[in-house]
Design goal:
The chain is an alpha/beta fold and about 250 residues long. It is built from 10 helices and 15 strands. Helix 1 packs across helix 3. The radius of gyration is 19 Å and the shape is elongated. About 40% of the residues are buried.
């Protein structure tokens, strides 16, 4: 099989199965695992897959820059945001992650809701100015411009001094095996720090993120309270997560 044919075969397999296991592909094609790994490296360099131990997974479309992400799956994000906003209780304190889905949560909050929102996103903080009864606590640090959030040691240290009833956490990838992932190591560390300061952590994930993975792991499923998604309940990934005990809050 020519290199171009192997490439097409791998992309078709990734679309159909949602993952590539290098040793299985090598056995099926009668080639070495090294050849498969080289092909996967080439595909990853073009942004067509996310390499993981033993093979590859679909790459998340949410790793593009913040401005571009605003036009990705806006309807799905609004559905997820509506469910997430319903978890915020009057008088409660919520840690709200950055990103476009979190911004949709702000827009979904009742204008007369009185609560405290803790965030490391200047964009989220600015959007909450129009909510007169929301007290806003902004965590500062080095701004990671890709996601318009504060990250780094100063931000993590500040996060360790807050606490909340609820954390609404955004990720770029949701996968049964890879877990919850994002594209930057410091952003992943910041998300862990925020989630650790809340009694409950719910993950916000519109359907295009389900079944995909990014480079850096954020949290294992056991450290979350549930997943809010508009993905089809019969999606194989959603069914696997539910079978493993992950609470799924549908946002259909």
């Amino acid at each position: 099989m020519l290199a171009a044919e192997r490439r097409d075969h791998l992309l078709e397999l990734l679309a159909r199965e949602g993952k590539i296991v290098a040793k299985d592909v090598a056995a099926g094609l009668g080639i070495s695992e090294d050849s498969v790994r080289r092909d996967l490296r080439d595909l990853a360099s073009e942004g067509l897959c996310q390499r993981v131990y033993g093979g590859a997974l679909p790459v998340s479309p949410a790793v593009v820059d913040y401005r571009t992400r605003r036009s990705v799956a806006p309807d799905g994000k609004r559905k997820v945001a509506a469910v997430a906003a319903g978890l915020v209780r009057p008088g409660g304190a919520v840690i709200l992650d950055g990103g476009t889905t979190a911004l949709a949560v702000v827009h979904a909050l009742p204008r007369d809701l009185a609560c405290t929102v803790i965030t490391h996103s200047p964009t989220i903080a600015a959007a909450l100015i129009d909510h007169p009864q929301v007290e806003v606590f902004l965590i500062g640090g080095r701004i990671y411009k890709h996601s318009a959030v504060a990250c780094g040691a100063a931000a993590v240290e500040a996060a360790q001094n807050v606490s909340a009833d609820l954390c609404l956490l955004g990720v770029t990838g949701v996968h049964p095996d890879a877990g919850l992932t994002t594209g930057d190591a410091e952003e992943a560390a910041m998300k862990r720090a925020l989630a650790a300061r809340a009694a409950d952590t719910y993950v916000l994930a519109s359907s295009e993120k389900v079944g995909t993975a990014s480079r850096f792991r954020v949290l294992p499923w056991g450290e979350t309270s549930g997943l809010i998604t508009d993905a089809d309940p019969h999606d194989p990934v959603i069914e696997q997560l539910a079978a493993r005990g992950v609470e799924i809050l549908p946002a259909g």
